[in-house]
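Fold this sequence, please.
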Amino acid sequence: MRAGLQAAIAEINDNGGVKGHTIQLRSKDDGYEPDKAIKNTLELIKEDQVFLLIGEVGTPTSKAVLPLIDKYKVPFFAPLTGAELLRTPAHPYVINIRKSYYQEMEALISHLTDTLGMQRISCFYQNDSYGFAGLEGVKRALNKRAMQLTSMGSYERNTIAVMGGVQDIYKMNPEAVILVGTYAACSEFIKLSKAKHPGKRIFGNISFVGTKSLKDALGHYGEDVIVSQVVPFPWDDTLPLVTQYRQAMAKYQGNAHIGFISLEGYIAGRLFAAIAEKVPGKLSREKFIQTMYRVGSFDLGGVVLQFSTATNPGMDTIELSTIYPDIKKLENK
């Protein structure tokens, strides 16, 4: 996410910046822990006096800092999470650019049930607000089809202690498992599943897992693993934005991988500049948000993001991809 942001910002600065001013990106690592996220956010707002917060990674960390966003009235721009708590109820300073986890789960469940005809679906999830958001999304999508989860299992954040979850899931015999976790835990779960409970089944992941990292961690275990995506395919050269993204990554982030999450970071950086350029007069936080809604639609090169005070949806992208042997768009057979 940070690499994509850095590529976009370097590109923007090399082309004159925003209204003649260069953009500076200050980054702090919270280790995916809420307490440190609060500490970092206070430092960014009070000491660094940042204009806005961009690209916060994770649901538990975003949830932890929401009270600070409201208190200091700082835009919380393009967080890397699809959690509903950032969408309902609406927060005036939260600007989402991706679809929600509920919508990702609907796409996954639709594929498994409506396309493949599966009936027995389980969920393995991280035991925190991220995992709960995904779990609720699965339940809602199944309930829409008068179905229920076959079994559930969980693990603790920042661990790969998944054996208990494996045992809980396979007390029943699911045809598919939806995973709501990070790539390290999800890859461990899938490997153990295939080793201890062989058989044909689908493993569905949501975008936050990190497709490239999951693919690398799984190796040949990646067969029958799918991931929902909330940005365009990063190798789709028919989209000018994707071509520009890959060129910017090659020029400014040569050691970083091309992939869905760095593309999301790049889109976030480009969108920030596109909104800021249209702010009349001196840039301010309030005018930035007002301008985003007033203009409403931003075409970044074949990728259009639309905003309204009623829906605030950002991108309208949800696609499924396979990861083995290569990352490809899912084609229904």
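The chain has eleven helices and twelve strands. The chain has a mean pLDDT of 96.
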